[in-house]
Write a structure and sequence with these properties.
heterodimer; A: 3 helices; elongated; B: mainly alpha; 73% helix; 0% strand
């Protein structure tokens, strides 16, 4: 718990409210992208992007079976 | 509150990429031969149907060759790892918001173990993986709803057990542990109260068992690699900021 001279306890993020908010906005955006990616590989049955048809589903077919996601 | 979430996010993506790739290559080597066999058997079954006069149900549109689907398995596993890495990092940052950089190694292993139970093992116990050839296109929406419910119950149940354990911190060890165990049993009961998988499983028992073991092994390998890389990166970051860190940090709590 000793604080050496010239060494901040936490140097990774500025103790600044706006930096914290910005970081959490980035994290939230990343979470949304992650959820969309999970939906795309494990849940899509050809409706995510109409043009892709069931290509996405068929490409992820083996991964869906392996990880236990419901498949046709 | 300003939790440094971005470094954790970076570690989550790195660990998730490594874990997804490892699990993908592992299953490419060990599970693909089984899946190929299951598909050949399925084709043989549908030919028998055709011979006996019934309409051949050829529900596999051959959009991709098997080798493209093999490659798709590795890509899917990589995407799975990366996405889990993001969600893991955010959950880790929230749970350890008081001192997110402390005790990175034991925490990473513990958190990965908990995530394996919640996200992988519990849903797999209720709705075990099935090889290709099992799965009725007409019930897929229903099964997706059930599977999603199982994952949500797994994650919420894990949070609930942890909260019960944390909130009873003032009580004796037997009270705390029995209460947490009782909560875990209640979560299992809820999980098994979900309706069963409606599909028939017309696959030989040995093939089915081997496939399910490999499925759970892939999940376990993914989380093991994830925990190790995430923890190692945390240790490295800790070593950088404060060279000889006094590691008297407390575990999750």
């Amino acid at each position: 718990m000793s604080l050496h001279a010239g060494q901040h306890p936490s140097t990774t993020a500025a103790p600044d409210a706006t930096t914290g908010t910005r970081d959490w906005l980035i994290a939230s955006a990343a979470a949304i992208v992650a959820l969309i990616a999970l939906y795309a590989v494990f849940f899509d049955n050809g409706s995510l992007i109409a043009a892709t048809g069931s290509y996405l589903h068929e490409f992820a077919h083996d991964g869906r079976h392996l990880f236990g996601a419901p498949c046709h | 509150m300003s939790i440094p979430v971005l470094p954790l996010l970076g570690r989550g993506l790195t660990a998730g990429g490594a874990a997804g790739l490892t699990a993908g290559l592992f299953s490419l080597l060990l599970a693909e031969p089984l899946m190929d066999r299951a598909i050949r058997l399925e084709e043989a079954r549908s030919h028998e149907h055709a011979d006996s006069g019934a309409a051949a149900v050829q529900h596999h549109e051959e959009l991709f060759s098997r080798s493209t689907q093999h490659f798709g398995l590795v890509v899917t596993s990589l995407v799975f790892g990366l996405a889990l890495g993001v969600l893991f990092a955010i959950g880790y940052a929230l749970v350890h918001r008081r001192d997110p950089e402390a005790a990175p190694w034991p925490r990473a292993l513990l958190f990965s173990g908990a995530a394996f139970l919640a996200v992988s093992l519990l849903p797999a116990l209720r709705y075990p993986a099935n090889p290709p050839g099992v799965g009725d296109g007409a019930t897929v929406a229903e099964r997706q709803g059930l599977w999603l419910a199982a994952v949500v119950i797994g994650v919420l149940g894990m949070v609930l057990v942890w909260q019960v354990y944390v909130r009873l911190a003032g009580r004796s060890a037997p009270v705390r542990q029995l209460a947490a165990a009782g909560t875990a049993v209640a979560v299992l009961a809820v999980l098994f109260a979900l309706p069963g998988n409606p599909d028939e499983v017309p696959v030989a028992a040995t093939l089915l068992w081997d496939f399910r073991v490999l499925s759970i092994a892939s999940h376990a390998l993914l989380w093991a690699v994830f925990g190790v890389v995430f923890g190692a990166l945390g240790l490295r970051a800790l070593g950088r900021t404060a060279a000889p860190a006094p590691s008297g940090a407390v575990p999750a709590g």
